[in-house]
Amino acid sequence: MPIPGPGVPISMNTIATEFGGTVPHSLSEYYRGGGLVPNSPTNTAIPTSGQISMGNFYGAANRVSIPIVLSSPQVTYDVYTNRGPTYVPGASDITVTVNPGVSVSAVTGTGTYAMLVPNAFNPADTVTIVNQGTIIGAGGPGGTGGPAGPPGAVTAGAGVPGGNALFVNRPTTIQNPGTIAAGGGGGGGGGGAGLLTGRPKKAGGPLYQGVSGGGGGGGAGDSAGAGGARIPGGLGAGGANGNPGTSTTGGSGGAGGPTAATLPGATVTGGAGGPGGGRGASGTTGTSGSGTSPGTQVGVGGGGGNPGNYIVGNPFVTWPVTGTRLGAVA
Q1: Among 135, 167, 199, 234, which residue is least crowded by beta carbons within 10 Å?
Q2: What pTM, to 2 d.p., does this model score?
Q3: For 58, left (φ over 0), alpha (ψ -120 to 50), or beta?
Q4: Are residues 180 and 317 in contact, defined by beta-carbon separation less than 8 angstroms?
């Protein structure tokens, strides 16, 4: 702990207890920046050379405390980049506090993190995160709806996996009375459906008729996943686009193309897109297309995207308070 301020007697033993050193101790061991005493703002009264006295050591400290408070929304927050000007390699104790109601999120796209603790810190530094708010990854986009045909039997687009929330690559303590959540996976696109009518096209050959599937819903995240697109074409209006997610819930999937007649007694229906996943949850597989004729080619619904990881680098972390953690872990 820091040496007391003026008015409290200090001795050579007081200084040695704080900074260490070799017995027998001498004040010449304790110049600022000389190896024992960090060259930090806390220790500016201690000279780097020349005359030195015990009075220079009032309030001095062997460690540098760096409190960082996040009181407004942040995007892709790198703790090392924001360590501040008082940082002293190997002598710093960094504490990042995310205030209640504050969100730290990833930028749009699931290839980024909401918060990073890289291994650029000196091994002797300590890093603590106190999360009273929300640290959340980006939502995965929904899959594309399947085509009306041909070929109607193709699988619709899969939902994109959700993004990761927190990356840690060095020993870190995390107190989490708040929420750390991966982005939700996107919903899979709905399958289309088509039927070979047997009528020739002008250029020759068979003609397919059918309806397309709906797009999948986007996954949840502060940077929410976009809804999957429908493929225009086919009979009637075809499938609908999926809806984007929100910060907490996945978007709904787009409706499949409405039932349409292709030949007397034969109808086809496009499948609906699957809903996107909520925070830390998988998207839902899209519904396959359907038809009433044995000759119908039915498109398979796309698979839902997996959630991201609420943390990558969990073996580095000590969790005195676990709080709410949503998603996978790596």
Answers
A1: 199
A2: 0.86
A3: beta
A4: no
Query: What letter would DSSP give residue 81?
Result: T
| Alpha helix stretches (DSSP H) within 81-236 | none
Query: Which is it for strands 260-263 and 266-269: parallel, antiparallel or unpaired?
Result: antiparallel
Q: Which residues, in sequence order, are bridge partners of residue 290?
A: 269
Output DSSP code: residue 234. Answer: B
Please classify residue 262 by burial: count the beta carbons closer than 10 Å to its beta carbon, then call 0-12 exposed, 13-18 middle and 19+ buried: buried
Q: Which residues of 23-40 are buried (b: 16+ CB within 10 A; e: fewer)?
A: eebeeebbbbeeebbbeb
Distance CA 95, CA 86 (A): 13
- List, for residues 224-256, the tens digit of each pLDDT value: 999 999 887 666 668 999 999 999 999 999 999
Contacts of 267 (CB under 8 A, 6+ apart): 259, 260, 261, 291, 292, 293
From CA 121, how far away is CA 207, in angstroms rounded?
Answer: 65
Beta-carbon contacts of residue 51 (< 8 Å; ≥ 6 apart): none
